[in-house]
Write a structure and sequence with these properties.
- The protein is an all-alpha fold.
- The protein is built from 3 helices and no strands.
- It has one domain.
């Protein structure tokens, strides 16, 4: 009986540690999920608002560009019946601006980072350091 008691105590301690580590891992996973969900939700809200703003901006831009094309025709020395040249000038400007915007968007996209659960990673690092410190003490 005396030899079983220390073995049972060790087995019980190992089981307790295993359960606590398992619980800790589950909580860290839940924390990571919550962080990513929060970041994705914020991202989606900003995307929706950005799309709405884009629709209004594009509509306003269409009216502006139409007026700009007629103004370009008025300013160009092409005659009264060649109004299409004003639209070609505006289209050329739009292609140049679209190329510059596409280049900038690609550069900004490359510089951006994906949503990372930073708090969960920090907590995992703290746990690892704590366990390593306790292991070294023994």
């Amino acid at each position: 009986m005396a030899t079983e008691s220390p073995t049972q105590n060790v087995a019980q301690t190992v089981q307790d540690i295993s359960e606590r580590v398992s619980l800790l891992v589950r909580e860290e996973i839940e924390l990571a999920k919550a962080e990513v969900t929060e970041k994705v939700t914020k991202l989606l809200k900003s995307i929706v608002v950005g799309i709405a703003a884009g629709i209004f901006a594009v509509t306003g831009l269409l009216f502006f560009l139409h007026g700009l094309a007629w103004l370009a025709w008025f300013a160009l020395p092409v005659g009264n019946s060649a109004f299409f040249w004003g639209f070609f000038v505006v289209a050329g400007l739009l292609f140049v601006l679209g190329g510059v915007a596409g280049f900038l968007a690609a550069r900004f996209f490359k510089e951006s980072s994906p949503p990372v659960p930073e708090m969960a990673i920090d907590e995992a690092g703290k746990i690892k350091r704590t366990l390593m410190f306790r292991k070294k003490k023994r």
